[in-house]
Design goal:
Blueprint: E1 2-5, H1 10-13, H2 18-29, E2 39-42, E3 45-50, E4 59-62, E5 67-74, E6 76-82, E7 88-94, E8 99-103, E9 106-113, E10 116-120, E11 126-129, E12 136-142
Length: about 140
């Protein structure tokens, strides 16, 4: 996982997508984007806005096709990384959702705040927890 402030986002989405992503963030900040619905931004880029998480202790996910970028636009979000070496699969790969679920222990965590993001590469097992009612985040899926 890589953590950075929003100005560093261009290093992870690339010049091909940065303008579209920044426009999407502006729309989220203006409350012009529905919460909880996946939106296709480009062929290899989609996003969802979340105000809550389905956090369950010990349950993690990993992706095969897409990298995750979690962007906090209001409040905070805690990202937890699991130990893939000792993890066990609890739900096999779901091709439509591009995820595998694992049971694991937490090996690291980081609380992120407004205008920060986490780049989570494919195959890295992770989960997140939004703890307050004022938080809002974007999850980008990028190939």
């Amino acid at each position: 996982m890589i953590l950075d402030a929003l100005p560093g986002l261009k290093n992870y989405v690339g010049s091909k997508y940065i303008d579209s992503v920044l426009l999407f963030i502006d729309k989220v900040n203006a409350n012009e984007v529905a919460i909880g619905e996946w939106i296709k931004i480009k062929d290899d880029l989609k996003a969802i806005v979340l105000c809550k998480s389905g956090y369950i202790d010990g349950v993690f996910e990993a992706h095969t096709e897409f990298n995750d970028i979690h962007i906090v636009v209001d409040g905070s979000d805690t990202i937890y990384l699991g130990d893939k070496l000792s993890a066990s699969i609890t739900k096999p790969y779901d091709e439509n959702g591009d995820y595998t679920l694992y049971s694991s222990k937490v090996i690291s965590s980081c609380k992120m705040y407004k205008n920060t993001f986490a780049f989570i590469p494919k195959e890295e097992i992770h989960t997140n927890q939004i703890e307050d009612e004022f938080s809002k985040k974007i999850v980008l899926k990028i190939k």
